[in-house]
Amino acid sequence: xxxxxxxxxxxxxxxxxxxxxxxxxxxxxxxxxxxxxxxxxxxxxxxxxxxxxxxxxxxxxxxxxxxxxxxxxxxxxxxxxxxxxxxxxxxxxxxxxxxxxxxxxxxxxxxxxxxxxxxxxxxxxxxxxxxxxxxxxxxxxxxxxxxxxxxxxxxxxxxxxxxxxxxxxxxxxxxxxxxxxxxxxxxxxxxxxxxxxxxxxxxxxxxxxxxxxxxxxxxxxxxxxxxxxxxxxxxxxxxxxxxxxxxxxxxxxxxxxxxxxxxxxxxxxxxxxxxxxxxxxxxxxxxxxxxxxxxxxxxxxxxxxxxxxxxxxxxxxxxxxxxxxxxxxxxxxxxxxxxxxxxxxxxxxxxxxxxxxxxxxxxxxxxxxxxxxxxxxxxxxxxxxxxxxxxxxxxxxxxxxxxxxxxxxxxxxxxxxxxxxxxxxxxxxxxxxxxxxxxxxxxxxxxxxxxxxxxxxxxxxxxxxxxxxxxxxxxxxxxxxxxxxxxxxxxxxxxx
Length: 496
Prior knowledge:
The protein has helices at 21-30, 59-62, 80-85, 108-112, 163-169, 191-194, 222-226, 248-251, 258-261, 280-284, 291-298, 305-313, 318-325, 328-335, 388-395, 400-421, 427-437, 441-452, 456-459, 471-474, 477-481, and strands at 3-12, 43-47, 66-69, 72-75, 103-105, 124-126, 178-182, 201-203, 210-212, 232-235, 240-243, 268-276, 299-300, 340-341, 352-355. By secondary structure, the protein is an alpha+beta fold. It has two domains: 1-85 and 141-340 and 351-355 and 459-483, Alpha-Beta Plaits (2-Layer Sandwich); 357-452, nitrate reductase domain fold (Orthogonal Bundle). Helix 16 (400-421) packs across helix 18. It is globular, with a radius of gyration of 24 Å. The chain starts with a strand and ends in a 15-residue tail after the last helix. 44% of the residues are buried.
């Protein structure tokens, strides 16, 4: 058993209000430099929708992530020879049009324009070329369906629905959307690392954060196409790849990442997970519909004496073990089974999990009053306004049972909380829902408290970093970083 630590996150989608405060906090801190104008290490998307970059989920177009060929796990971008053959032309690379051309406004014209019959306007100007620009796209262009369903109907996840279901999703009386904030998933099996020719991408040994070595990076950009979530970017000014670093300088001083710290809806949770690195490949080879359960099995119980002993042999301190035992992420993902990975079928084993949305309450107004009894206070998982097949295409590789179980637990917890606080559901009804979902009243209380009433230290359980103790000396860094590019022990070229 090779026990390692991974800082992981949970985003609770029922609490996200789509305000983009997280995106702006990240942008102001990390991507306000020349060459990063189009980068959004954190962005918030509306679902259904095409996202940023456009249609990033379509791996037939972008060739990101992994695929099973026989019993082998192979990057969709290709093996070494395939990468070498596309070294100077990568057909799966997103273009500027897939993102958007960043712009500012010609504010100076407002002050320098000559007198005229009409007031002057500040026309948009490209930040790349400096020329006037007709704005046709943006990082959140299809927010809230953009006022129409035109963009949303191109969502690749709708392919799992019948034509009737697709049509129903966009009827004005049934229309519903929700928000998905996205950052780098800091995957256990990152495809960006596997396809980097220069070996510039690595996972930190102590906390599993995926980083790009700016000295080694040669700007081949295979990491951009290799990442199925499109969370690696190319800096056109420096010629280097950049990505979310999970604000590790803040983490090392005990602070939450900037996007987490500024989140208005308080949807974000951070904590430590322990996993068995020897089983990564076997778990990533599971069938699509079994990948969520396989990823859960990969996560280890920090209270298990065998796991704790193996972690100490790997050089993990008791403080980090204690942090793993108090992790809110472990509870949401492993203990309660509420948080699910985004597109597990990409087989990168992402370490960012989502609590699926419970969608608006459906009630009857036939008697002239708001009647909640006809379909139950929160309805049921069979009449959700976003079809289960759509949610399962996002969060479970098509396994509707996993999403149904998570939603059933969430409904039971909400009903339990309503029965206790508002009294519009009887305690016997709430108890029946808890029993059906496999929860106890004590567990439901814990979930409700961590969802709606958590303190900052409940949501962010960050282990203390002791930089004076070099963990890399006790845990072989090469073993944690994986293979270096095409097998070079040094960066090829430039004598480095």
